[in-house]
Structures are given as C-alpha cells and as structure tokens.
Backbone:
C-alpha cells in the first residue's frame, strides 16, 4: 500500500482558490459593482459605490453564496471528475471531504448573514 504524501499549506490554499474559482468570483463582484455604478446610480461619481456599505454587503453575500455553490458542485461531482479530469480534482486530494462540506456551510451562513445586513428581504 502506497502512502499518499500530505499536501503542503501552499497546495491546500492553492487548491481552495481553484475550488472556489476565484477569477469567477472576482468577475461576479466587479460586474455587480459596475451595474450599481453605471446603471443604478450613473449620476454619481464612480467611486461613491465604494462608500456604500449596503452594496458591499450585497456583493459579499452573493460572492460567498457563489463560492459555496462551486464547492458543493465539486463535492457531488467527485466521481465523474476522477474519470474525466483526475489531475484537477481538489476535494479528496488537497481538501478533505468533511472540510469541504464545513467550508460550504460556513460560506452559505456568511452569505445569508451578510444579506441580513443589507435588508430583511435580502436575508
């Protein structure tokens, strides 16, 4: 029986960032900000959106929920991903399945809580 080497901290962090698809999350946040700045409040200066705490919490909320969605998607697609792209599987290699589910729950909770800071309807 071969012993699998324990992943390093850099591999764990890198795997997590790939797991949550950070470029997609960045595009999501930038798009939401641009919609606010260009479509909802085009009459104000572009940098005013950075001062709006409700906009910040809304973007934070949706980003957390999207990241949680990416994690749960990879969690349930492990078997097919091991066949189709075995070198790109994160859960089980760099991040234990239990940790993936815990992080998923945490991100969902943070997203819902941040939505509550915006408005009861968003919550």
Residues:
């Amino acid at each position: 029986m071969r012993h699998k080497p324990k992943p390093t901290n850099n591999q764990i962090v890198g795997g997590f960032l790939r797991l949550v698809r950070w470029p997609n999350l960045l595009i999501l946040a930038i798009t939401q900000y641009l919609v606010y700045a260009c479509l909802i409040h085009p009459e104000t200066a572009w940098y005013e959106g950075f001062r709006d705490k409700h906009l910040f919490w809304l973007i934070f909320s949706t980003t957390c929920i999207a990241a949680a969605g990416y994690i749960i998607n990879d969690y349930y697609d492990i078997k097919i991903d091991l066949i189709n792209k075995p070198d790109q599987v994160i859960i089980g290699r760099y991040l234990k399945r239990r940790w993936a589910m815990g992080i998923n729950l945490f991100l969902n909770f943070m997203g819902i809580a941040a939505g509550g800071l915006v408005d009861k309807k968003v919550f």
Q: What stands out?
A: Helices lie at 9-19, 22-40, 53-76, 78-84, 97-118.
